[in-house]
Amino acid sequence: MKIGFVGLGKMGGKMVERLMKGGHQIVAFDPVPEALGEAQIKGATPANSLQQLVEKLDVPRGIWIMVPSGDPTEETIAALSSLLTEGDVLIDGGNSLYKDSMRRARTLKAQGVSLLDAGTSGGIWGLKIGYCLMVGGKAAAFRRLEPILETLAPEDGYAHVGPSGAGHFVKMVHNGIEYALLQGYAEGFEILKAKNEFNLDLERIAHLWNQGSVIRSWLLELAEDAFKKDRQLDAIRGYVEDSGEGRWTVAEAIENDVPAPLITLSLLERFRSRQQDSFSAKVIAALRNEFGGHGVKKK
Questions:
Q1: What is the set of active-site residues?
Q2: 255-261: which pairs have CB atoms within 8 A and are 24 or more residues apart?
Q3: What pairs with residue 6 in β-bridges?
Q4: Residue 88 needs a FRET pair 20 to 30 A away by CA distance; which of 26, 41, 185, 224 works?
Q5: Which residue in 173, 180, 164 sits closest to 252, CA to CA?
Q6: Is-contact 95 243, C-beta < 8 A?
């Protein structure tokens, strides 16, 4: 199958490579010449602009967009919409807010273009393992692009989960759960590390827990790999970013009166990780000193 692909970053470039290994023809575009050149070396047909990409595709076209959420996705879809014709299908594989995907699908529908919102999970390991794909949008558009999805995903690793917006909604909640899982593992390993008298081997324990325990997982495999590279993670600063999905998941829980304390607290812990010296902690220390004479640590 021949499709266009916009965005050749950490995930996009690997996805293009997996598609080509699966026998698909890719017309690729990225504003970064080095990324485009690398895709060309691996077999993709390069396009120097979105217009050129559209012109090199057969009608009806299929184009996968893999750019950062927010303005980059908005601008890319807006630019492509003026170049597309009835029957074309766009796939947004980024982490867009599902409400934006619903709006964009309505706008494109007016000109006969379909939008599939494809929540994509797999990270940099997707080339080897495959990508889990949660797809929302018209069933007919899904079926037409299904050969692409089948190649990108592992066995049983893709599904049409509902109408426009559903794919990105499911991926949003997926990432919210990921926040809580990461926080749970992080706290557990910190407790292990704090028990100095045992001098515990965290890499060995991560490996051990993956041998039949109830908390075994791919994340534990990655923890083992991380501890193997740096036993105490001394080279890493404890600063954790969030890319939006956790915030959206918490907002959705509030909007629907769903208690989600673990996901909410895991999001707040990410904010806490960015503080050099927590002012709220200073306030608590000061108050404990005032009411109970508890000692405070001076700078």
A1: 171, 178
A2: 260/176
A3: 29, 65
A4: 41
A5: 173
A6: yes
Token pair 């918490």: residue: 250
Residue 143, SS3 per DSSP: helix
Closest CA to 120 of 130, 105, 128, 110: 130
The amino acid occupying position 59 is V
Question: Taking a C-beta distance cutoff of 8 angstroms, is the pair 245, 182 a contact?
Answer: no
Instruction: Record the tokens describing residue 69, joined without a space.
Output: 């959420």
Alpha helices in 153-260, H assignment, sequence order: 166-194, 202-209, 218-229, 245-255
**Given the structure tokens 């014709």, which residue do they identify?**
85
Q: Is 64 exposed, middle or buried (0-12, 13-18, 19+ CB in 10 A)?
A: buried
Identify which of 42, 108, 112, 22 has the alpha carbon closest to the alpha carbon of residue 30.
Answer: 42
Between strands 25-29 and 2-6, the pairing is parallel
* Helix, strand, coil % over all residues of the chain, rounded to 5: 55, 15, 35
Cα–Cα distance for residue pair 245/97, rounded to 1 Å: 8
- The Cα–Cα gap between 131 and 168 comes to 15
CA distance 117 to 172: 12
| pLDDT tens readout for residues 254-273 | 999 999 999 999 999 999 88
